[in-house]
Amino acid sequence: MNTSLKTAFFAEDEPLARDLLRDAIYANPGLRLVGEAANGAEALERITRLRPEVVFMDIQMPEMTGLEVLRRLDYLPRIVFTTAYDQYAVTAFELHAVDYLLKPFTGARFAAAVARLLDGPVHARDTLDGALAQAAGRNGAPARLERILVRDRGRIFPLAAGEIEYMKADSKYTVIVARGQTFLVRIGISELEVQLDPARFVRIHRSALVNLDFVDSMRADEQSQLQIHMRDGTVLGANRDASKVLRDMAI
């Protein structure tokens, strides 16, 4: 037996997707399949018992979601989430997922995810007070968001929080402006705000939030409310409360 192989497990409730994952894992020379599950409850029990080194986890499953399974584990395997829904990307990434595969994915994309899985040591943890507690925040406080997964022309890639210039609410989406581009994410601006550094990111009104690192200047209008001039030339108006907060921040 090749002891250099990483033990692998997958949880997937769709029979066809289960067959595809099983075949892909068997075909990969770096993995040894040790188990599988068709729902969240089975996944939690079998992963806890088998303690595989790497896990491919669907998110939307009967009885328990993949995110719930990960939160309940008493150790942290290297995780790749497999799902048809991109709105969970931020949560998955902040829960230390190595990768996030949107179904249907290609063989090349699966191979790339496995390469990331096998690149470096498996991160262990003693209890939920370890890495997951840090990611989820202690005493109910939200963790600081260090990065967010965004989509661009069929790709998904991590965008560092510090690269975000400003955000604007757009119906059920949030528009993120960064790197001279705009990205749509299916996460509310309020949900994102509580995970960002308040010393850097300021909510200037109900539907806009700015990164002060990308503000060129602020000027008061006739109503003494600040107009925020961003480095890219965009001008955003701050409401009365936000204008006061920004003035109070000035030395």
Automatic annotation (TrEMBL):
<dbReference type="Pfam" id="PF04397">
    <property type="entry name" value="LytTR"/>
</dbReference>
<dbReference type="Pfam" id="PF00072">
    <property type="entry name" value="Response_reg"/>
</dbReference>
<dbReference type="InterPro" id="IPR011006">
    <property type="entry name" value="CheY-like_superfamily"/>
</dbReference>
<protein>
    <submittedName>
        <fullName>Response regulator</fullName>
    </submittedName>
</protein>
<keyword id="KW-0597">Phosphoprotein</keyword>
<dbReference type="InterPro" id="IPR001789">
    <property type="entry name" value="Sig_transdc_resp-reg_receiver"/>
</dbReference>
<feature type="domain" description="Response regulatory">
    <location>
        <begin position="7"/>
        <end position="118"/>
    </location>
</feature>
<feature type="domain" description="HTH LytTR-type">
    <location>
        <begin position="148"/>
        <end position="251"/>
    </location>
</feature>
<dbReference type="InterPro" id="IPR046947">
    <property type="entry name" value="LytR-like"/>
</dbReference>
<dbReference type="InterPro" id="IPR007492">
    <property type="entry name" value="LytTR_DNA-bd_dom"/>
</dbReference>
<feature type="modified residue" description="4-aspartylphosphate">
    <location>
        <position position="58"/>
    </location>
</feature>
